Amino acid sequence: MKNIQKLFLFLIFPTILFANIEKELQTQFILAAPGDTIIIPEGIHQIRGTLSIEGKENLVIRGMGMNRSILSFSDQDIGAQGISITNCKNIILEKFTVQNSKGDAIKAQYVDGIVFRAVKTEWTGGPKKTNGAYGIYPVQCTNVLIEFSVAIGASDAGIYVGQSNDIIVRHSTAYHNVAGIEIENSFDAMVYANYTYENTGGILVFDLPDLVQKKGGNVHVYHNIVQNNNLDNFAPPGNIVGKVLPGTGIMILAANNVHIYENTIQNNKSIGTGIVSYFITEETINDSLYNPYTADIHVYNNVYEREVGFPTLDYEIGQLMAIKYGRNTPDIIYDGMQDPDVAEGLCIQNNLNAEFTNLDIEHNFEKWYSPFISNFSEDMSNHNCGVPHLSTLK
Amino acid sequence: MNTILGKSSIGFILLLSITLGENPLKYAKPKLSDYGFFIGNMADHIPRDGVLPYDVSAQLFSDYALKSRFIVLPNDEQLSYKLDGSFDFPRESILIKTFYYPEDFRKPKDNIRLMETRLLIHTPEGWMGFPYVWNEEQTEAILEIAGERMDASFIDQNGGKTKFEYVVPNFNQCKGCHVNQNRMIPIGHKVRLLNHEFDYNDGKMNQLKKWSMLDMIHGLPKLSTLPHTPDYDDPTDGSENERARAWIDINCAHCHRLGSPGETSGLFLNIEETDPTKLGIMKPPVAAGRGAGDRLHTIVPGEPEKSIMIYRMESTDPGIMMPELGRKLVHKEGVELVRKWIKEMK
User: What whole-number distance in Å separates Cα of residue A38 and Cα of residue B150?
Assistant: First the structure.
């Protein structure tokens, strides 16, 4: 018996000695067979290079709990992401945290079936432009589920789903990011029962030009609490998300077929819900296949609440709104850029406490005095359209 | 004792999964010598019959490492030429690439240290990349599937000493670069990168001509009709524009083209691309984060200092630099070349 033990030690000991957790996890990720579960042990583990999962099927990567199994990339010197998952099928990530990666925290690309469950991504030094861009970051994926997860401190979006299809983001929390949750150029996304607070913008639905997946649609944002998203925008300049006004609750940019309903949208000082075209970015559009307008947007049965106070004065639109409306900025703000090919651009019904304004950017903003004599319109009657929605929230 | 046993059982399960699991190791041998590619002292890289040396005209920058390359085809089988200028390889083809440094680049043949040999093997499951790390004695190279870090140094052309950590990529990172449409593919095996002379033991000859003479290629068009990508280091090989595009193609386009991971950015840098926006000209970044470095466009014609491309080429911060992997140093000559190209762009 004793000899066998000795033999074991002899065989195993070298493995233990050289094996740091980084090499061990990376080796397991490479050698994993379908059906395997790979455990991230309890503790704070220092990892210096991107951990990569490539070409695998049916894997579970499981920690011992969001606050118990922590992969820290503070000393990272190889690769931009914390974890990179590519060309996979049915991958479940659960119960661990990725901290302080140099670039994105967890990026999944070309994955069919990716679950983030009780996963936390964070930069622990507070909101900084040197933080990585995205926390939870599936891109070009299908069948995406993000639930019970937390994203903190991303210099772009905490939870970002881009160029993907069939998406659920639910029961998750995002704070201290530039964007809390962002759905970009994606189809069939259900974003519900999330809590986004103290970001620059709470929830964004964007369609951007020059991408492989040209557009998105059928995006439903409902039953979320979107609160106090008044953080200064700390995105590095040049990034599109840098144009989001501090104090934005929900922002729809150039997207089509988006439904915003039964959310609680509170104390976002500049824009409760913004519906704007790509023209507002003042970037040139070179992509001939790109539609810069919003269309088929439905905003209904939401509850708005806003403390009296100025919108952000760091951005031109904020300044103009402050001149026009003082400390009572409206809740729902439309840039008035109606897609000429679409009958129903924006439908608004039965929101509680919702003030509305149409900035009509095509005709306003040319002169400094525009806000005083411009035709900002508070008239919502043109937007009483779409399927009728009853007031359920009074 | 308990702790040790506890730990060892985890290790044992790991070992077990290595031997039992379906894993890529079944396609690789544990040591480089197991393949018998070389005769005599293995470090001298004298190939046995059937192991043919070659090079490519434009190289991926890998921290100034020199590389020797060999191709091995299975008995009597051939590459078939494809219309896009690449090849179909028979199963069991092997591409060998050894990374090495001379102690002093002013005497590039002396005091060579071999770092690693990467094998790209065409298995029944597709191409797979396996890194073998050379020992200090330079007698053997061992498969390190999870990669490795090694202290390295060299003296450059100007006599300056550079010390850095050399990084051997892991099995997955090999594919990270070598991937298109979810399949791993060789990068350097295009006629335009092979269409030049190579100094063989029996004299100089165009590589494609040699491969044809050895009956290694099926369906190759007439040599004079085939393109050639310039050696970006050689000012006599092509125009400045062509050399800059060659550098960008070989260093960036394995990711930045349709079907490869960099496509999410909408930035396509392959040598065939002609759309100015896709090439980055006045193109705002999409998901660059701090990689944009306060600059607003990938390329601003005439203004390299305002171009994100230069910023990322000049960085060694892993959250900023491009390519993301495969270098710890800045390729100063490459930066100069691309800088000049942008500077002169109208």
Answer: 28
